[in-house]
Write a structure and sequence with these properties.
Layout lengths: L64 E4 L46 E4 H5 L5 E2 L5 E2 L1 H8 L14 E2 L8 E2 L1 H6 L3 E3 L4 E3 L7 H5 L10
Antiparallel strand pairs: 1-2, 3-4, 5-6, 7-8
């Protein structure tokens, strides 16, 4: 069982040529040390996932953030970049997962047109596929779709993981899928909402059966 699964299967500082760090030159004897230069503080915006709206160090098991660029055949909507941080974000409270109503695409892309998404949020998203080169395709479209799709569990936007049952239109964020009690098959990357959890064996086979209560 991988991270956060319920009801489921499973820059370099300068160095010498020999690799030793350079020594700071000692001031001449009797001469005062030069004043220390205060460390510069970064003014870069905090990176958050364009789907779950959590930061890099989220506690919900989404793993690391990855940067995604638009597909060659598709471009983000006009005026979709912004230096502003997404509303909310960086909170690990489940009530803060996702985005409130009317979140513009501008919040989801940095000023280069790239977006950031957690590993598991991306891999589980509907419409995203893993290529032969082990790269993810379709992430840009999934992000745009997500801002129009409400999570069945938290009722906020950014949900891209759809229940695999035929005819079911329920979507979830990755953290919410586990919290909701949905079935998750890591092998199939398939989710079943609590209403359709009885179909788990059809999707995942006998590995879907609980070894304790079955």
């Amino acid at each position: 069982m991988d991270q956060q699964k319920s009801n489921c299967e499973e820059n370099d500082s300068g160095r010498a040529a020999d690799g030793t760090p350079p020594e700071l030159a000692a001031p001449p004897k009797g001469e005062a040390k030069p004043p220390e230069t205060p460390m510069e503080t970064s003014s870069a915006p905090v990176r958050v996932c364009a789907l779950c709206n959590c930061g890099e160090r989220s506690l919900h098991g989404q793993r690391e953030l990855h940067q995604f660029l638009p597909s060659p055949s598709w471009a983000p909507p006009e005026n979709c970049t912004s230096d502003s941080a997404p509303p909310g974000g960086t909170s690990d409270d489940l009530s803060s997962i996702g985005f409130p109503d009317l979140t513009p695409p501008a919040y989801l892309y940095d000023n280069t047109g790239h977006c950031w998404v957690h590993h598991w949020c991306a891999v589980w998203s509907e419409g995203v596929r893993i290529t032969d080169a082990q790269e993810l395709e379709g992430m840009d479209k999934a992000v745009i779709s997500g801002i129009h799709q409400r999570c069945e569990y938290c009722k906020r936007l950014g949900a891209t993981i759809r229940c695999r049952a035929e005819g079911c239109s329920k979507f979830y964020h990755f953290p919410c899928s586990a919290a909701s009690g949905s079935f998750q098959s890591l092998k199939q990357l398939a989710l079943l909402c609590p209403e359709h959890i009885d179909k788990a064996v059809e999707i995942a086979g006998e590995v879907a059966l609980c070894t304790v209560c079955d």
